[in-house]
Structures are given as structure tokens and as C-alpha cells.
Amino acid sequence: MRKWCVGLWALLGCVALATAQAAEPILIKFSHVVAVDTPKGKAAEKFRELAATYTNNQVRVEVYPNSQLYKDKEELEALQMGAIQMLAPSLAKFGPLGAKEFEVFDLPFLFRDYEALHTVTQGPVGAALLRGLESKGIIGLAYWDNGFKQMSANKPLRTPEDFQGLKMRIQSSKVLDAQIRALGAMPQTLAFSEVYQALQTGVVDGTENPPSNFYTQKMHEVQKYVTLSNHGYLGYAVIVNKAFWEGLPGELRGQLEKAMQEATLFANQIAKQENEAALEAVKASGKTEIIPLTPEQRQRWVEKMVPVHRQMEERIGKTLIAEFYQATGFAAKP
Ligand code: LMR
Prior knowledge:
This protein is α/β, with parallel strands linked by helices. It contains 14 helices and 9 strands. Helix content is 47%, strand content 19%. Strands 1, 2, 3, 4, 5, 6, 7, 8 and 9 form a 9-stranded mixed β-sheet that branches. The site of (2S)-2-hydroxybutanedioic acid (LMR) has 9 residues, from loops. Residues 33-34, 90, 146, 171, 192, 209, 213, 234 line the site of (2S)-2-hydroxybutanedioic acid.
């Protein structure tokens, strides 16, 4: 009788344990380097909420903003190793992964506006680029917009000559490196989390970023001038660890894909207005003077910077650049 009782308890214990295990949600750690109050930060939160709703809390997304888990390059390594499951690095940061073709997005003056950008990110050329990540153990789920970059420094930057000898912080992209050199300045690659301090202490003189990043990192406190150059684009690819993603039960994966589609629509709806609002906030701070370019001044930037396209053909691929030109309507001779 006693033996029978012990057996029953063990069985009940096993059932309870199995139930508890079944109820334990699958965890997706989503790391990123920007503030919560940015297009990427808000879209990550949106995905977290939608994922919980659509999977009926069977998946829990934990979002870690502000480089609190990893800095730029480390986060990509962590994703490949499976320490985190989801990221949305800027397209300029895929080079160190060996996916240097993503640097095509960094080519100066390539995208006239968001509409031109979307011909790529929402079309077959963008989809093919994402598929190329699979050989690196990564699945690309979506493109999330941020915005157009502006140049900043502690002196007004109106002409290419104004860049002479300045040290400019860039992301880890060879295209951005070439772009800064084309202006006669010295590029310096730094992790995003280090930019504010580097500007503050004079390790670098200036930088480029869309207003949403500029404002939320408080760069306006340490940069006296921002030139409205709109000379390049900064946006993201949302990526997941392939083994993790393919190991998910099919139904859950489908629900997460739906959540991602909606979060992507949201991201791409808010990006423009978030950047406009951030620029207004920089203006309102009174700490940074905003410098518009005359058409003639802008043309001088174009003449200096667009030759970088040709220079980077070998690295990025001539065919890919041609595909981008065709999709966006970029005229090689501006
Ligand atoms: C940067 O490093 O400047 C950006 O990539 C940060 C970001 O993720 O928007």
C-alpha cells in the first residue's frame, strides 16, 4: 500500500512539473543600442506587445535598449552564438559579419526620400539581400526605417572644405569611411554607446546621425551645429538566430511573423514624424544651431561624395549598385 502511495505521488509530481514546464513561455531576448524613445525603440516595444498577444503569452519578448546587454559588434556575435535571439542592427553594421553588400545602403545621396528607399526595402532587391544572411546562421525578418542623416560638429559645416582635418565618428562601414575621407575628414569607428562621451571629450569633432538618435543621445548638448544635409540613410534589418527561429513550433512562428509584420508597419509609419519631432526638439533646446544648405552648397557635397559609389563597386558589387539605381531612380550623374 505504502509503495503504491509513493508511486502515485511521484506521478503527480511529474505531471505538475510537466505542466509548469509547458506553461513556461519561450523567451526572445531582443537587444538594441538606441533609446526607447526612438523609431527602433518604439517598434521593438510594439513587437513585444504584439508577440505576447498573438501567441497568447506563449512567447515572451524581453527588450534590452541602450546597449545595456551588448555594444554594436558584440550584439551580432551574441546573436550568432544564440545568447540572444533577436536584433535590429543598422544596415551599416553588417560588414563585420561578412555581409558587406549591406553597405550599399550607406552610399551617399542614393535615396531621394523614404519612397525611393522603400522601392528597395519593400521590394525584391531588399528581400534577396535578407536571404543572403541565411548562410551566416541568421534570418532577416524585416527592414525598419529610421531616417536621413545630418552632419554635426562644433563648427558650421557648409562646404566640403569645412570638413578639412575634422575627426568624424562613423559606424563600422567601409562606405562611410570612404565618404568621410572624400570630404577631407578623418573617420573614426566607435560604438554607438561611446559617441556622446567621445564628442564631449573631443576624441572626435563631429558625427552623422538621423535627428532621432542625435536628440535622444543628447548629442545636441555637445555639438554646436547640425547641417541639414540629408546625405545618407540610416535604417535597420530585424534579424533572428536561424536555429532558434527554425526550432520554434510552426504555429508560434507564424504568429510571431504576423506580430513582426505589424510592428514593421508601425515602425515605418512613425520614423519620419519621429525624426521631424526630434529635429524640432533640437531646435527648441537652443543648444545647437541648425544650418540649412543652399542648392549650390548641397551640389558641392554631392560632387565630393557621390564618387564614393564608384570607389565602392568592388566591395559592394556593381550589379547590386545597378539594381539599387534602377529601383530608386538614382541618376548616376546628379
Ligand atoms: C549608430 O551607431 O549610429 C546607429 O547604428 C545606432 C542605431 O542603431 O540607430
